[in-house]
Amino acid sequence: MKLGRALAAGAVLWAVALPLTTGTALADETPSAPVATTPAEDPTAAPKPPAPGDAEPPEAVPAEDEKARDEKLEGASPQVRERPDGAPETGGGPVDSGTDLAVAGGAAGAAVVAAGGIVLALRRRRAGSH
Amino acid sequence: MAAVSLLLAALTACSSPTPSPTSDSTPREVTSTSSAPEQTTVAGLPASRPLWIDVPAIATHSSLVPLGLNDDRTVEVPPVEQPMQAGWYEHSPTPGQTGPSVVLGHVNGGGQDGIFARLHELKPGDEIRVGREDGQVARFVVDRTEQIPKKEFPADAVYGNTAEPELRLITCGGSFDDDADSYRDNIIAFATFAGVDQDRG
């Protein structure tokens, strides 16, 4: 009989305590989700570049830093002591090709042949007139 | 009652907060994530006159002659009769010094290809080596190669200050303007410093 009472009392207490402890357990687990996502939403993290953000190297300098660096560089004394004017002229002209030479030679040869023909024609005309 | 107490104690123990490594580690992660990216600046070398240049990707090797300014303040170039000769613009930093070091060479001359006839073939990642008088060999890696009309020559990008040692290789390109007796474009390879080797001569 005593054992039965004790078991009954235990069951009642367990039934009362179970919801309380479940709630505590749930409450303990709740913060873990935001904790896991906190680093990704950290407002102090470096700003993501607009383009393919994930593909950017981790060492990418933020735009503000780049701007400050550029301004600092522009303000410094010039590393190129004398800045040239205009663009460099580093070409002598198209390379002569064998085709060009052949065309020129052929033209010269044709001119010689034509001149010879004219001379011959003139001589024959003179010989015929006599 | 003892059994009841034991039962309660056991239940409470099961629901007690487990030591949460996640919550402990979170601040560390935040700290590491929020630390600003460090700007890695490569230290430059002291000044030392460049003696030669080697661009393996386009089978190019030349000694370097110093180049100054012409009377009209355009940059001097090597003699066009020696198209295989490259030159270093002596008013720019020496290769390996912080700043843009400028090397020029002909695309052609005297009816032959010049030292930089294949400059347009350079691709990002190709290596350029410059031997210096102090026995060090400055190594550079190509960032990009551009073909730009001479009328829009990017003087700031070529001659402007840089945070690290850089190198520009310049030649002519594009179509040839017979009237002006000049190419219409420039080919410019932009390269950044990659380290130093010792010249084993």
Low-confidence stretches of chain B: 1-39
Strand content of chain B: 35-45%
Structural class of the helices, strands and pairings of chain B?
alpha+beta
The average pLDDT of chain A is 64
Strand order of the largest sheet of chain B: 1-2-3-4-9-10-8-7
The H/E string of chain A reads: HHHH
The major sheet of chain B is characterized as:
8 strands, mixed, barrel
Topology of helices and strands:
The complex is a heterodimer of chains A (130) and B (201).
Chain A: H1 2-29, H2 32-37, H3 63-75, H4 98-129
Chain B: H1 2-15, H2 21-34, E1 50-55, E2 60-67, E3 86-89, E4 99-104, E5 108-109, E6 112-113, E7 127-132, E8 136-149, H3 155-159, E9 165-177, E10 182-198
Parallel strand pairs in B: 2-3, 4-9
Antiparallel strand pairs in B: 1-2, 1-7, 3-4, 5-6, 7-8, 8-10, 9-10
Would you mind describing this structure in some detail?
Chain A: It comes from Actinophytocola xinjiangensis. Chain A: This is Gram-positive cocci surface proteins LPxTG domain-containing protein. Chain A: Keywords: Cell wall, Membrane, Peptidoglycan-anchor, Secreted, Signal, Transmembrane, Transmembrane helix. Chain A: InterPro entries: LPXTG_anchor. The complex is a heterodimer of chains A (130) and B (201). Chain A is mainly α and 130 residues long. Chain A has 4 helices and no strands. The longest helix of chain A is centred in the C-terminal third of the chain and has 32 residues. Chain B has 201 residues and is α+β, with helices and mostly antiparallel strands. Chain B has an 8-stranded mixed barrel. A two-stranded antiparallel ribbon of chain B has the order 5-6. Chain B starts with a helix and ends with a strand. Chain B is built from 3 helices and 10 strands; from the N terminus they run H-H-E-E-E-E-E-E-E-E-H-E-E.
